[in-house]
Amino acid sequence: MDGGRRNWRRLVAPFVCLAGSMALYLAIQTIGARDSPVAAEGKIARSGYGGKAQEYELCVSGLEKDAETITVEVSPMAYSEEEAEAIFYEIMDQMEETIRGENPSLMEVTEDLNLPSLWKETGVRIRWNSSKPVYLDSSGHVAADLQEEETLVLQARLSTGEFQADFEIPVRLIPRQLSEREARLRGLTGAVAEADQKGVGDSYLQLPDEYDGRTLSWSEPADSSNILILLLGVIAAILLFARDGAEERKKARAREEELLLDYSDLVSKLMILIGAGMTVRNAWERMVNDYEAGCREGRMKKRAAYDELQGAWLQLAGGIPEGTAIREFGHRCGLQPYRKLCTLLEQNRKTGTKNLRTILEQEAEDAFEMRKNLARSRGEEAGTRLLGPLFLMLGIVMVMIMVPAMLAMG
């Protein structure tokens, strides 16, 4: 059962790659067939009015023995002279309502005008010129410092294909009614500008300390970048705190996995030593001595389970009761198998070691099975992590295939 599950998982990634590439191929084929410029009867659709000429690489069969590839240029749709003139006048009939924006009419303009460069419904292009660009520019912006009414003419040049026509639109600009605050700010700006012109010979500009009966104080605006630096610092602190927490959780998880992997080895050694006639205390001492010697000689690396075992032995050597040392060992390990082992040792310490070897043999078998399951799950987890780069490579391949295909389709 487990072998079949592993084989199935091993086939998932290749199957996904194959299915993804097939789906991409079918999608490109479908899009290409749907967007093909050549219809079944040999027609190519033109772009709309005001569009651009399109070039297509097409294969033609029947001209020569083999199919030939030629470049075909297709011009956009175009109006006749009469149609263009009619379209121009139709646009101008709707022009005032379109360009006045938030103004009541073009004779009462206080806000910016909306001057389109393209009349989308017809593909007609429009070029604007103002007789007084100081007050109203070709983008429709009204001068902010307009003091008096101004009458001017907007010239609109409409063009489509080879046909064009000029139209003039009269516009009357009216100074916008300022609020009390806006009027006060504009007046202060004017007073500062006047003081600047009067004192051009001085080495500095004296800002007014009073205006309109109000006492003024001047300073530079707060630099928002300082707030940004503070915000970045807060975000960095949060990320560092989260990283520290993640590292702690990662270390705790690695310690738990190490304890589980060493559990079967620890139980097996304990079973053999007790089976050889040693007491639990003597077996414990022997295991600790072998561990310390192995670390000194470089045959063994530091292991969490044996470190905790060493700590328990130091407690025993220091006079702590055996039952207390065993319970604290299980508590420090913190995992259910170790707690179970400590419970078995505590019970048999009270009732004798007559059946302890048999119990430890069964526990060793269970521990070995648990270790196999853990190793299997770690292998599956590693395989799952490999799927990320695999799908990334699949995505890159798909992009490498799709982009040229899309470019080829125009």
Characterise the protein shown here.
The chain has 410 residues and is of the alpha+beta class. The chain has helices at residues 2-34, 81-99, 180-198, 224-275, 280-297, 304-317, 322-333, 336-351, 356-408, and strands at 54-60, 68-74, 118-119, 124-130, 150-160, 163-173, 210-211, 214-215. Helices cover 58% and strands 12% of the residues. The strands form 3 sheets. It has a 4-stranded antiparallel β-sheet. The two termini are 52 Å apart.
Question: What is the secondary structure topology, with strand pairs?
Answer:
Layout: H1 2-34, E1 54-60, E2 68-74, H2 81-99, E3 118-119, E4 124-130, E5 150-160, E6 163-173, H3 180-198, E7 210-211, E8 214-215, H4 224-275, H5 280-297, H6 304-317, H7 322-333, H8 336-351, H9 356-408
Antiparallel strand pairs: 1-2, 3-4, 4-5, 5-6, 7-8
Structural class: alpha+beta
- Strand neighbour order, sheet with most strands: 3-4-5-6
Helical content band: 55-70%
Give the count of helical stretches: 9
Largest sheet: 4 strands, antiparallel
The unreliable regions are none
Number of strands: 8
> Could you say which overall geometry the principal axes of the C-alpha atoms support?
elongated
CA gyration radius, whole angstroms: 43 Å
Q: Residue-averaged pLDDT, rounded?
A: 80
Euclidean distance between termini CA atoms: 52 Å
Beta-strand level of the residues, as a percent range? 5-15%
Order of helices and strands: HEEHEEEEHEEHHHHHH
